[in-house]
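Can you make up a protein sequence with its backbone structure tokens?

===
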Amino acid sequence: MHQFPLFLTLAGRTVVIVGTGAAAEAKARLVARAGGRVVAAWEPGAAIGFVALEDEAAARAAAEALRAHGLLVNVVDRPDLCDFTTPAIVERAPVTIAVATGGASAGLAKAIRQRIEALLPEGLGALAAALHAARAAMTERWPAAADRRRAIDAALAEGGVLDPLDEGAAERVEAWLASASTGDGADPLAPARLEILALASNDPDELTLRAARLLGQADFIFHHPAVAPAILTRARADAVRTEAQVPPADVPPGLSLWLGAPGASGPA
């Protein structure tokens, strides 16, 4: 990972934008959409800074001056001078999806954003709002966090009752909570389950669709020492990882995944 992604709350905060012209105006619009206040020079309490100056020496000097005040700085069109970059954005408020290339190609980020934009229904934001409003009800229904997460994952899965790509999903949240199951015939609190994946290689680009899906869903990852970090990074960030020579005899509640040595003919 070349950059650490995060979403910054700017509502009511001050952002410095040094420069004028189309690039500076574009950054100012983004800040305004996030509820921030734009100023042209540093002042106490400023959160971050943008520099939109054509002259490289002037841009470098302006960035260094802002950094001297403790600000992280983005210098437009000069990724080597940036502390952070601004991504291409897909917005279905309160859902925001950011696509970044670490400054390598804004055009590529834009192209990916356009593909994602076409996939996501306008009702996605309403689904997020409905799930937020139902948080207390979900906690009451599934007091254990692990059970609650499995129930939500099942409902939000492809074809699930709350499939995020289904325009009408937001309208089914209340019924989902009231039902005896997730609506897709699956018990979200099903007993422990172990899936075994046969990896062709340590190249993540060779993962099958099934393997990629299971890596994104598994609660626990058991893996042979020969499995490369590049494969493990495709798993959920909060999945528990355990290195082992053979598949586990017993697995905890939820979905466990065994990754054998790449190219091996059997489970081990």
Summary: The chain has a mean pLDDT of 90. The two ends are 29 Å apart (CA to CA). Residues 123 and 198 are 38 Å apart (CA to CA). The first strand starts at residue 14 and ends at 19.
